[in-house]
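pipeline/complex-builder :: batch 7 item 3
reading input block
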Amino acid sequence: MKSYLAPRFRIERDRDRCIDCQVCVRQCGYSVHFFDEEEGRVYSHQDECVSCHRCVAFCPTQALSIVKVPLAYRENANWRPEVIQDIIKQAETGGVLLTGMGADKPYPVYWDHLLLNASQVTNPSIDPLREPMELRTYLGSKPDRVTLGADGKPVRQKLPPTVQLEVPIMFSAMSFGSVSLNVHKSLAMASVAAGTLFNTGEGGLHEDLYEYSDHAIVQVASGRFGVHPRYLEAGRVIEIKIGQGAKPGIGGHLPGEKVSVEVASTRMIPTGTDALSPAPHHDIYSIEDLRQLIYALKEATGYSKPVCVKIAAVHNAAAIASGVARAGADIIALDGLRGATGAAPKVVRDNVGIPIELALAAVDTRLRQEGIRNQVSVVAASGIRSSADVLKAIALGADAVYIATSALIALGCRVCQMCYTGNCSWGIATQNPYLTKRINPEIGAQRLVNLLRAWSIEIKEMLGGMGVNALESLRGNRLHLRAVDLSDSDLEILGVRPAGR
Amino acid sequence: MPTNRAYSNPYGDDKVMAACAIFGMMDRSGRRFIGDPVVTAIANMHERGNGLGGGFAVYGLYPGYESYYAFHIFYMDADARPRMEALLKRRFRLELAEEVPTRETAGVKDAPLVWRYFLAVEGRQPAGYTEDEYVVSQVMQINSTFEDGFVVSSGKNLGVFKGVGYPEQMAEFFRLESYRGYLWTAHARFPTNTSGWWGGAHPFNLLDWTVVHNGEISSYGINRRYLEMYGYQCTMETDTEVLAYAVDLLVRRHGLPIELAAKVMSPPLWSEINELPDPERRELYAMLRQVYPSLLMNGPFAIVIGHTGEMVGLTDRIRLRPLLAAVSGSLMFLSSEESAIYRVSPNLDETWTPLGGQPVIGRLYPEAAQAESRRAKVALPWLATESAAPGRDATRRVSAPQAAPGQAAAR
């Protein structure tokens, strides 16, 4: 069928600069550039360009630039170009539109409406270059009190296991399959170096990564891919994935083309078969079933590690989180509307779930109202872009945050949203060996460690500015936040005062 | 009718900030002394206050009534008193009610009506509540909902006298020369706003805990939210309140010794914990930080905590506010400034500056502590001392040459 769609991007090649060296031809995962043997020149099929900038970054003569194809539609606030293009695609394919990464629609980004405090006059700000500044964080269930025996020593409480983080930032779940093994290696090595954790996602833990497993959150998802006793034993934390912010309520589908020999053996499925994760866990149809799985995993691992339950931030997130805490979870991970994915139906990604800021505030408030906040740690995920977002999440009540998109950007990702194609020119969301070798795990880990280091320094600066020298003094401390340009109901849910008051 | 909040925080600030002078003096032998030297010492640090708050806590104040909860209540409107008293009679057995004697004092204005009540619980608490817990819940309820009146102190054998003015003015206003106690704490306040709120002055009290505080608790938002989970309601709109409630939670309800409560509020750094040679201590301190991260009191502070038989000085862990300690015989002093101690006790055995986060703890000698608890029921002490020192003038007293504390106590 003839496609009625116009290309979105255009390659502009400066012929004065281009030396026809074919670097762009080799770098592009989408075969946009090609070499014409007869003419001995490089050309581009621009209709395939996704604007991932790989060719631009690697062109040795800076001959390339990418521009939007100028294409005027009659102005219409309702029938916007994207809406029209989506309808055309569906008329041509009859299918669900797939996409990658997180919701890109202009829903309010509440982080950008929240402002942090600083000390002036009445208390001194603290200079982190001169004074200690503590970011250490423990995730897991904590008892409500320390109990001392008659001898003045603490009673040997059966303390639930916790996990120690040196920075309150962990790498969120990305499965081996959706991303390459080299990406997993980069995340694992960076976690060890930075004193944090990475998350296997639902694709299991590759043999090569067991040496880093003390920094791994091993995920148990509805497909149960790669879940076996040694895997559970190896992880530092076990995470039951109930939902994902990018696609709440639906399952996952790793197409057979991505199921390489390595992916297949890690997931314990035949090579080349589609890996389908059901929408629900078929052994969890209610909260008491979740409790059974939580305790089955705790039993299986001798109560030696925290069990996290990851849910997508949906309308009743506060009540659900309360139930999850009571079901025995040690950590609740909340994944909001802008959470990313390797592949999801576009309509679900962009229309289902609620923003993490509101969900996080509501969950923290509810757990406190019910007096069970100590029982469980709360991890916030989705769209955390900077150290300021991290601090704002912590002030709203998060114990730590997950980042994934930010980590991938550190590795080269340009958020082109084409992860589901498996053609990632940056070698991230692909299993094509020609592409995956573009990520050198040593360099990848260094880039990730640099990012965490930079954010940590910034966090320390801002904490010191607020006059506190330990992260726990900001955690849930919403008096250090003020809001601009939010409605009264937003303020009430966030528990934050408007700026100026 | 206005609630407490309308008085305490008319501008709706998230907390009322203040800087201050603090002073504490204790005779560890249990000898009850008149508070002249305490007034002199806090007045010596006049520049640290701005006349918008001063106050005193006195322990061993009501020995004849030591088994009763002594409520000091401020009425912003005299019409509130019958309502409050009807409420108190429903909730307690009222042993004695009387107006706290005051005198007209230059510069003190908008004073509330101040009464004290000696109350017994005697089984009125619900099943599963201790008497203390019942009293806490009543105080929380009154202070968060009652209109035009609130409880200033609620402990046994102690009282808080405070208000808007310099502390020496408060001493005169409340006729402090007529009281004796073995432990006094004092406070001069420099709030950063102009609200004339008598309840916002220090000391803050709950049961027999009092706190005087110099500084600002930057972690207040989370300290408050954490304490709210345990039923504490912060009604006085100052960060000092959370210190009193935190100590009550940790020591009375969770049974931690005050030394460990100090390690919760001013914990050692993780790097210091890791270097502790004793593995048991290392584990205990790490556990305290993991279980009570939300009670870390972060930001600059120096505090003197009063408690039956006990006086505790503590600063934040990087010591952003001054605190000096001194000992002279059985007397022990804590002060924002060393000069204030020398002013009232020139011959000291020892003075020192405690390290950040290191508590300084003064306790009654064991025999004195026992005697204090055995003390027989006698006539109300202020009736005797009132006549012993008639018409004394606080202002003159401050400027007059001072007797040494021992002599003052013996008088």
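note: Chain B is about 35% helix and 25% strand.
queue -> next item
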